[in-house]
Amino acid sequence: MKPVVGIYGLGILGSNLARNLGLRGFELALCSSLTDSRPENRPQQVISRFPELSTAKGFETISAFLDGLIPARIVIMMLTADESVDEAITVITPHLSKGDVLIDGSNSHYSDTTRRYHQLKVSGIHFLGCGFSGGLDGIANGISVMPGGSEEGYQIARSVLESVAATSVDGSPCCTFIGPEGAGHFVKIVHNGIEYAEMQLFAEVYAILRYAVGLTPDHIAEVLSAWKDTDASGYLLDITLNILRQKEGDAFVLETILDSAGHKGTGVYAVQAAAGFGVPAMMITAALHARYLSGQRHIRTHLDEVTRSQPRKNASMGTTDLYNAFQLARIINYHEGFSIIRAVSAHYQWNINLAELSRVWTNGCIIRSSLMNRFVKLWENWDDELVLHPEVKTLIAATWPGLRRINHVSSSESLFTPCLVAASQYIAGASLRFPAANLIQAQRDYFGSYGFRKVSDPTGPLHHFPWRN
Ligand code: 6PG
After folding, report:
1. DSSP code string of 178-189
2. How many CB atoms lie within 10 A of CB 226?
3. Are 261 and 292 in contact (CB under 8 A)?
4. Any idea what DSSP says for residue 469?
5. Candidates 266, 288, 365: which one to mutate for ligand 1, based on the most atoms within 8 Å of Cβ?
6. Parallel, antiparallel, or unpaired: how do β-strands 247-248 and 251-252 relate?
């Protein structure tokens, strides 16, 4: 018999998850979050809108909602970014008992999830922080599910979580137990960091083809549709092609949209994790800051007056170079993401399995693409940084010149392509050939007497130089 699942929070995320579970035949109990400003009969409104929820029951009070569930209860909180998960836990847990499972399905910060996991463990409640990825399309096709926290809780809720998951490359559900504490939410924020940089890369390719080459959006779609048969194929390419072709009257819809990118915070968490754990993540950071800069309309309006330069609109470049540049930058982006995961997983001893995680990301999630299928195989036999894998090293050697040529075009046309530049700069910075950080060490020793190591003895003792003599 399938368990009855309680869903707390009926905004877009909550009602979509409810529809997803309803379609898969689960009995559901639905309750709005107490902080929801929508009308009191919200559960009933949601139920009456969607036929797949016709057997679901709506509740107006927490006690009616939870007391009706059969132990072990499975309750999924689906709260929006501005609703408090801690507040929800405070009102829900008095109605739960030892052995029940409470799941946070929002994009919480992983350190909050770790704290909540330990807090609830004391009373025997299994807490799971679960990353869900897939947006609105995931309702019909399934999503990527990234649960972390109580493994016992995962086993109890497994059939529920697996039922909403997309089917992965090997036919199994895009769902796996990621690791203890906040591991599930942690990989979801890294997923989003990768997502930010990949979206930014598409924006940069668009900018190059639109402004340097002078193609219209539908012609750009023609160029990019050739990538569908390659490792670039995936969800973000598909939706980008669709967006580029949409017209409203004579206008391309894309060109009617103000270029100020929004964000809901997970990109910030990814950049904070990279910075906090000393992992270089120049592309993910550049993508976040590009969104910030796009929103600074005041500065952009004023600087536009002094920096205005007209792109030629007929720049020539090889489409193979553009494809190679894009793919190489994607690899560097994934390297950054996996590198953050390796560092954080090692620190907390979460033992995150990158082959399994890549498998969960082969379908359902926003960053699903053919490339991910390759990562599943690669991580099965590799336990080091992605850029050090022989295949990746060969790819870097073959495609870096093309990336540099593309960056040359975009720079001479005054375009804004920070992620393509960051990818190329990552490779330059990861080489030992042109040392420059020695000057930084000399300056640090000069003003702070922090010491430096010698080229002749890289792991040896610190030295000082009497700079002021
Ligand atoms: C997903 C998305 C999703 C994302 C929100 C907000 O995997 O389904 O990543 O969870 O967090 O759509 O994204 P923004 O930060 O861009 O607003």
Report:
1. -BSTTHHHHHHH
2. 11
3. no
4. -
5. 266
6. antiparallel
pLDDT at 67: 86
3-state DSSP call for residue 175?
A: strand
- Return the residue whose CA atom lies nearest to atom 14 of ligand 1: 263
The reply to whether ligand 1 has any atom less than 6 angstroms from the CB of 136 is no
Q: For 237-278, how does the pLDDT look when each residue is reduced to its tens digit (9 = 90+)?
A: 999 999 999 999 999 999 999 999 999 989 999 999 999 999
CATH number of the structural domain 5-181: 3.40.50.720
Spatial separation of the C-alpha atoms in residues 9 and 36, rounded to whole Å: 8
Residue nearest to atom 9 of ligand 1 (CA): 192
Q: Which amino acid is at 252?
A: F
Q: Does 41 have pLDDT greater than 80? A: yes
Domain positions in the chain:
5-181, 188-429
Q: What is the CATH number of domain 188-429?
A: 1.10.1040.10
State residue 466 phi and psi, 5-degree precision.
-80, 75
Q: Is 340 in the pocket of ligand 1 (CB under 6 A)?
A: no
pLDDT in tens, 108-135: 999 999 999 999 999 999 999 999 999 8
